Amino acid sequence: xVGADLPDGVPRASNILTFPDLxxxxxxxxxxxxxxxxxxxxxDERRIGWCPSPRLFLAAACGAAxxxxxxxxxxxFFEPGREILVAAQTDDVTTAMMLPRNHLTxxxxxxxxxxxxEHSAERRVQELRSILDLKGSxxxx
Length: 141
Hints:
It contains 7 helices and 3 strands.
């Protein structure tokens, strides 16, 4: 786990590496080498919904297989079961950890493909330009 703001009560185990103060420049290397990345939305992100953490997109861009907690809107960014795994309880994470390595590799590959195609900075610029062009041409307000 990476981050100085790890939630209280997050279990620590010998098979889970923690990096509370990892240099952000190294995050991509750690994610790319992980068999499975657990991404948890902060309480405020979960409450708001439709507000994914940049960490989720970074993990996907690195090709990491991801297991995430459920929050409103998640399925509009990634397809659960195909591009990302969703955990509602501890057993869901345990099950994800037992999946065959090739299944996790395929999951990470599909998440990477999706994030690069739909969630890159270039794609967001294209979307913004499209919205602004529509507004400038007298489209719906």
